[in-house]
Each structure stands twice: as C-alpha cells, then as structure tokens.
Design goal:
Distance between the termini: 28 Å
Structural class: alpha/beta
Number of strands: 16
CATH class of the largest domain: Alpha Beta
Strand content: 25-35%
CATH architecture of the largest domain: 3-Layer(aba) Sandwich
CATH superfamily of the largest domain: von Willebrand factor, type A domain
C-alpha cells in the first residue's frame, strides 16, 4: 500500500471510529497550515463564567441553541432571499418558539464530499469529480472541504482544506470495489464534523449509483445520526446504474436528505450533475440561519419535531429545513 494511502487509512481509523467514546480526536496526518484554520462562525453557547460582586466567579449554564439552516422558495420554486426575522415562525413539537438569532449573510461552511468508489462508478468519476470541484469553486475563502471516497470501506482522502489541487487529487483516488457502504460513510462523516469542525454551518454531499449493500449500520441508524442536534444538511445525488429507477434507493436518499433540510437529486443524465452542483451551491448560499432555545424539556434521546413557516406577500412560501432532532445528542459519541 502506498504511504499516502496508508496515512489515509490510519486517519480513517482515528477520525471515523464510530465506537469511540473519546472526545478528542487525533489530528490529521497532514493538517492545514495554522493560518488556514477558520474561526467558528457562531459558536454554540457554552458554560459562561461571570464575575459576581464578591470578586468570585459564578458559572452559568447556557441553554443550547438549536440552529436551523433554511431555504425558502415560492410556488414557482424560485429562491426567496430577502425575508426578515419577523417573517419566520418556528414551532417545536407544535409549540411556537422565540427566535433568538437570525442571519442572512453568508457564513463559513464545513463541507464534506462523499463519493461512491464502487466499480460501477468508474466511468462516471470524471464528470462527478468536475461537478464536485464546481461546488468547491462556488465556496468562500473561509469555507473548508474534506473528501471521503467510499466503497465497502470509507477513506478520508483529504481533510479540511480550500486547496483545489489537494481536493482534486483526493477525488482522483479511485479504487473501484463492488460494494457500497453509504450508511457507514455518512455516520463517519457526521462524527468527523462534530468532533473536528469549528463551524456551525455543516453540509454533506453524497454521490452514489447504487443501494447500500455493505454497511454495518442500518438506514435508521444513519438517519438517527444525521438528526443529531445541529447536525449537517445532507444533499444526495443518485446516478442511474441500470437504466431503471431504483425505488428503494430513491426513497431512502429522499428521506435522508429531506429530514435534514437538504434535497435528493436523481438526474436522468450524467451531464446534469454539474448543473445540480451549481444548484446546491446556490441553495447553500441562500440559506437563512435561524436559532432558538427550545422551551421543551430536553430529555436525552427524545425526538423533537420542527416546523418553520415563512410569511411574505400573498404567494405561499415553502421552507426546506430539518424536520426535527434528537435531544442531548451531538452525534459524536454514538456507535452503531
């Protein structure tokens, strides 16, 4: 095994260890330069220390803010990007919540690109790689991207970077194998984001052409991981492998994506992948960032539903955002 692939394999064991309970992960074998490390765009509230009148310190526990990344479209599917805080209503478990933070400006993104490395993808990889790089080209200077190639195993071939050359090299690491372990790759990517990314806005793009047939994890376990508190938005692209639509694949990818506020795409032609990448880039840059502190008891493991309304003008508006989350779960310590 070449040294570079050995390093990637070792890094995967560390970064994607799904059963680990340790909170500190080993740094990448080749970390980005210190100057390239982005600062958090909006750090989650933590224990705050404040000085009292007796010159002592009192630690006050802040309630964790639930952060939503929402895209709004009208009945013609046109993006609506000029709404204000007062245009939104957020409901958790049917109860109206008070919006505590609201941002429209572009914020730094941690983006994970997961590409199916199974044998059937070989003739498609060139166009898929070009589309992935188009998504990178549309990113901001503060964004950071990592690349995971997965077949029966998943490899973190490039950790966070904005270096297009490194990302291109990682995308070209093709080792075609017959199996597809999509759910394992998704769980590993969520763990990697939660353990290592300082950025609040997190996106995953997964590209595959076949149903999962090799994961140790189940569909429900992958969905549960994606629905962790403030988990990533997932976009998926399913390429046609047989000329016949796979209903099971469509349903599973649509559920995984839409439950997180993302979209599942099913292009009829490989030539459509680049335009889809451009569409995803527009979505990412057009999202509203809405935060609220839940008024409901947060019993660990309990699922809370979310519904967001956008009001503006006479035309009905549709909001794409996550549909709920599991309380007390940041996605970093669960095993499957």
């Amino acid at each position: 095994m070449p040294i570079s692939r050995l390093c990637s394999a070792v890094l995967l064991v560390v970064a994607f260890s799904l059963a680990s309970s340790a909170q500190n992960s080993t740094p990448p074998a080749t970390p980005p330069p210190a100057t390239a490390t982005p600062a958090p765009d909006a750090a989650a509230p933590q224990d705050a220390a404040s000085q009292d009148d007796d010159n002592g310190f009192v630690f006050k526990k802040e309630i964790e803010e639930v952060v939503l990344h929402a895209t709004v479209v009208d009945d013609q599917n046109h993006l609506i990007t000029a709404l204000a805080r007062d245009n939104f209503k957020v409901y958790e478990d049917g109860k109206l919540q008070e919006v505590t933070s609201f941002r429209q400006e572009r914020v730094p993104v941690a983006l994970g690109i997961l590409i199916d490395n199974s044998g059937s993808m070989l003739p498609k990889r060139a166009k898929v790689n070009d589309a992935a790089l188009r998504l990178v080209d549309a990113s901001q200077q503060e964004d950071r991207v990592f690349v995971v190639n997965f077949g029966e195993d998943a490899f973190l071939d490039q950790d966070y970077t904005q270096d297009v050359g490194k990302l291109r090299a990682a995308l070209q690491h093709v080792e075609t194998r017959g199996s597809t372990a999509l759910y394992d790759a998704l769980i590993g990517a969520v763990d990697h984001l939660h353990k290592t990314s300082p950025m609040q806005k997190q996106i995953l793009l997964a590209v595959t052409d076949g149903r999962d047939n090799a994961s140790q994890a189940t569909f429900q376990q992958a969905l549960h991981k994606l629905q962790s508190t403030n988990g990533p938005v997932l976009y998926t692209i399913a390429l046609d492998q047989t000329g016949r639509p796979d209903a099971g694949l469509r349903e599973s990818l649509r559920t995984l994506s839409e439950q997180t506020g993302g979209t599942a795409f099913f292009p009829s032609s490989l030539d459509d992948v680049q335009s889809i990448a451009s569409s995803i880039a527009r979505d990412i840059r057009s999202q509203y960032v809405i935060g609220y502190r839940s008024s409901n008891p947060h019993t660990p493991g309990v699922y809370h539903t979310i519904r967001v309304q956008a009001l503006g003008g006479s035309a009905p508006l549709r909001v794409a955002t996550r549909t709920g989350y599991y309380a007390g779960n940041n996605g970093s310590s669960e095993s499957h």
